[in-house]
Design a protein that fits this description.
Elements (H helix, E strand, L loop, with lengths): L10 E5 L10 H9 L2 E6 L6 H6 L8 E6 L12 H22 L4 E5 L9 H8 L5 E4 L4 H9 L10 E5 L4 H9 L3 E5 L5 H10 L6 E5 L7 E4 L12 E5 L1 H20 L1 H4 L4 E5 L10 H9 L2 E5 H4 L9 E5 L4 H13 L4 E5 L8 H8 L10 E4 L4 H9 E2 L5 E5 L7 H13 L3 E5 L9 H10 L7 E6 L7 E6 L12 E5 L5 E2 L4 E2 L6
Parallel strand pairs: 1-4, 1-5, 2-3, 2-4, 6-7, 11-14, 11-15, 12-13, 12-14, 16-23, 17-18
Antiparallel strand pairs: 7-10, 8-9, 8-10, 18-21, 19-20, 19-21, 22-23
């Protein structure tokens, strides 16, 4: 949308707070009182809550624009579905407001709570802010009114607060609840039963508070455990304070201390090291699934820990990607105290995974009595090879191009040895944001011994939604297209590409 006149109106998105008119800011009240046009959203057949909150501030001669949602829940026969009908509604609403602005009228669009916090104002902002002078006035979000109502400190000091929509899939919601300190869960209503189950799975149900119509005359709050799930209105949310998790951590520490006191009698528990496979649930082995269902602690690199479904009684310990031995020692300490623990890796734990780090840490005599068992998983090289056909059907080698744990000179020496032996080569960790030259150097080293027409398979995110598989040659391989999400398989001189796929004969002639 473009405008050619300077006599255009001013557009303001104004937060009016969660319900109590006294929570409207002075700036919001001034803009409402000076407006030529006041707009607000409403559900069909219902009064706008935003209008109700601010109505006493409306100028006597103000023009009102009621923007009635065509649909809020349920189904629609619109060809674009729910998203299509709403997109059309927002376009029409923006046109209505733009007409006033082009006529020189100042327009205020009311928003419950804060305009940029789960509010419909944002969709008007996207369509109008680039064409008209625009101002946003923040408002008190409903969750702050809810915590004030319960008198519950939400987060303290270094606590992390996470705001979650109750519409998330139940396992994802449970995972996020387990991984944060304080939490706010919005968008309840029909989602409430699943939200309550997710709170239970995350071990957060006991301290979760349900707040209904915060700051309104009908305000009430009760423990989530006491809520009748059949009568949960839209204007409700759940508060999980950071203190509740801190208390849980304190209890866990006490529990571990008690376990440690009896460790000599009970003995250490077996530490499991498991491979989760490259990604899809279908590639998680039944053995690993059963093991994860039985442990009390999961330890690992954060993206891998996040793939383990949260459930009641499970504590997840996530960490960064460069502390493998420390992570292993932490898991061994838990197991030594009698806790049932699984250390998780992507792919197979024994192939550039956590298994070696666990055995390295276990060399400490303090862990001499902790039994360690490794459960295999589908490796990334198996997944990429299967997608391509059978490129590792004969002798092959596996290498990592990461030089974080070994000198690059060693990497080059091994590349030359593999190339001279004419082995198929699977390359893990070919590149990262800080390692951009190694794959180009590896290609140059391999070309010293291999034909440029040597087949190369590039697998990216294999098994996931973004999966891509490219078959090229060593000479045509563009190192700039390779990143950490890729695994490369460089063929032997006998590797072939046929209509069925890429394969390497089992025989040598």
């Amino acid at each position: 949308m473009s405008t050619s006149t300077s006599a255009i109106g001013h557009f303001a998105g104004v937060g009016v707070g969660p319900g109590d008119p006294e929570l409207i800011t002075r700036k919001a009240a001034r803009l409402i009182g000076d407006a030529d046009v006041i707009a607000y959203h409403a559900a069909r057949g219902k009064q706008s809550n935003a209008r109700r909150i601010a109505a006493e501030l409306f100028p006597a001669d103000v023009l009102e624009e009621e923007l009635i949602y065509p649909v809020t829940t349920g189904t629609t026969d619109h060809p674009g579905g729910y998203a299509g009908v709403l997109a059309e509604f927002y376009e029409e609403s923006a046109d209505r407001l733009a007409a006033h602005l082009l006529a020189g009228r100042n327009v205020v669009l009311l928003s419950e709570g804060d305009p940029l916090f789960y509010g419909s104002y944002m969709y008007m902002h996207d369509r109008l802010a680039d064409s008209f002078p625009t101002e946003i006035v923040p408002g008190v979000p409903a969750f702050l009114a809810a915590t004030a109502a319960t008198g519950s400190p939400l987060v303290r000091q270094t606590d992390v607060l996470t705001v979650l929509p109750g519409t998330l899939p139940e396992p994802e919601l449970a995972r996020r609840l387990a991984d944060t300190d304080g939490a706010i869960i919005m968008k309840l209503g029909r989602t409430f039963p699943a939200v309550r189950r997710a709170l239970a799975a995350a071990g957060r149900l006991e301290h979760a508070l349900y707040v209904e119509r915060a700051s309104m005359p009908e305000e009430r709050w009760i423990p989530v455990t006491e809520v009748d799930e059949a009568s949960v209105p839209y204007f409700s949310l759940i508060v999980v304070t950071g203190d509740s998790l801190n208390g849980r951590r304190s209890r866990e520490t006490s529990d571990l201390t008690a376990v440690a006191a009896t460790a000599d009698q009970a003995g250490p528990a077996e530490l499991l090291v498991v491979g989760l496979g490259p990604g899809p649930d279908g590639w998680l082995t039944p053995e690993v699934s059963a093991a994860l269902a039985d442990v009390d602690h999961v330890v690992g690199y954060a993206p891998y820990v996040s793939r383990v479904s949260q459930r009641a009684g499970l504590t997840r310990h996530a960490s960064g990607n460069t502390v493998e031995v420390d992570r292993a020692a932490f898991a061994l300490d838990l197991a030594r105290r009698g806790e049932k623990v699984a250390v998780v890796s992507g792919g197979d734990a024994g192939i550039f995974g956590m298994a070696a780090a666990v055995f390295e840490a276990a060399e400490d005599p303090a862990y001499a009595k902790v039994p360690v068992r490794v459960l295999p998983g589908v490796s990334a090289v198996q997944a990429v090879a299967a997608r391509a056909g059978a490129p590792v059907g004969a002798d092959f080698a596996v290498m990592s191009l990461s030089d974080r744990l070994k000198p690059w000179e060693v990497v080059e020496r091994r590349l030359r040895a593999v190339a001279e032996a004419d082995l198929v080569l699977a390359i893990y960790n070919p590149a990262s944001r800080s390692r951009t030259e190694q794959v180009a150097t590896a290609r140059r080293v391999l070309l010293e011994h291999k034909d440029p027409d040597t087949v190369v398979v590039v697998g990216r995110d294999v098994g996931r939604a973004e999966e891509a598989l490219t078959v090229t040659t060593l000479g045509a391989l563009d190192p700039a297209t390779i990143d950490m999400k890729c695994l490369l398989i460089v063929g032997a001189s006998s590797t072939r590409v046929s209509s069925a796929g890429v394969w390497t004969p089992r025989y040598v002639r």
